[in-house]
Fold:
Amino acid sequence: MSTATNVTQESDVAGDLIRAFRSKTATIAVIGMGYVGLPMALEFVRAGLMTIGIDIDDRRCKALNDGQSYIADVTDLQLSEMLDSGKFIVTSEMSQLSGADAILICVPTPLSKSKDPDLSAVIGAGEAVSAYLSSGQLIVLESTTYPGTTEEVLLPMLEATGLQQGVDFFLAFSPERVDPGNASYGVANITKLVGGCNAEGTEVAATLYEQICNKVVRVSSPSVAEAAKLLENTFRSINIGLANEMAIMCRHLGIDVWEVIAAASTKPFGFMPHYPGPGIGGHCIPLDPHYLAWKVRLRGYEPRLIGVASQINADMPRHVIDLVTEALNDVGKSVRNSRIVVLGVAYKPNVGDIRESPALDILDLLERRGAVISYCDPFVPEVTAGNTQYRAEPLSAALISSSDCVLVITHHADFDYELVVNKAALIIDTRNATRRFSGSRNIKYL
Ligand SMILES: NC(=O)c1ccc[n+]([C@@H]2O[C@H](COP(=O)([O-])OP(=O)(O)OC[C@H]3O[C@@H](n4cnc5c(N)ncnc54)[C@H](O)[C@@H]3O)[C@@H](O)[C@H]2O)c1
Structure:
């Protein structure tokens, strides 16, 4: 095939895709109907594009087809509207990929037990895409991953079909930055980064996202886009690590860390407040820095800040247990046989996600020390920590007043903190949630 022919074919493929995206005649397939994929599919349906949601989990597909959303950011009503529009189908049938103009991969990227990247879902999705890849398609990886995944892992799989990137199909990386439960920022108003394997692919992918995002920024390669996402989350992990260590240092110094952070935050430039807590959770902040560290280690560099911050953050549950032990000791009690009510087990407020939640470690550590544990969390009806299963109890005056200690782990907005402060004998508040009652003698802060 001559170069001149290539250029012509390339332009045709790109031009056809761009026109199909702009005229909303394209079909979009989203692989992975989770926290990321389902809200993304919603935006494409709203923009008027035919959208196919694909997931290997048949139960998830059935739930969605029955109009039952398991993702808080997409309500049942919104899901019904998607289905009723005739623009949304959900299936576990990978062959549906053959009819898509663009395929977005939004599958999990966890860590293995040894904290190495586990790309099995990305590879599984890549195999499915390869099996149905045809000329004229755009493939975008959205899963958070180490720099090089798109070009070193996905690209060879796709080109093994005989089709060529930049000629027959386009491949790009575009990191997903959604923040589940965030009422202010969603798919539409979070700037979308796009890095294609070649300039034309970047343009094609950027045009797709311009149909649903207010602002799209093009970067020079998939690796830049992959690294940018990891920088964002590594920045958070390290700064939260600093805030956590500051909390420990302030405790040694007898100073209130929350007041210190509020005071430092009065500086109008050069300081961005981060807050301590019982540890970090979720599918992103505790995991993503390890993707970066793993990749860079392969190139012979041992990153330092990532490991230190991760360790500080991972040690916070034990620090919380120390606080509980000390506070109970001060009133002549031991953790053993004390009735401890844990408020919140989700990893962050106002969501029901318990993945990597520090509450799981804290429940387990309390259980091992013989505490009698109850928990309240309107978003998490039941939870397993260690070998023990717990069921949520409603937050009531009776529950709080019968406890020896209330431990605030997740600062859900709906908790009645006034009731807690009025009825609890002792409160350990790891989130500064009860600050407006800070005069109360029964509250100890992280
Ligand atoms: N959750 C977040 O807040 C968030 C934010 C930004 C980025 N991310 C990143 O987005 C990616 C997806 O995360 P998530 O939170 O949506 O995960 P999730 O677990 O909520 O959803 C992933 C879905 O993919 C499906 N799946 C797994 N393997 C599959 C395969 N081979 N084919 C088809 N479907 C498959 C699963 O059944 C599941 O429904 C991850 O890389 C994550 O790091 C997540």
Q: What stands out?
A: The two ends are 67 Å apart (CA to CA).
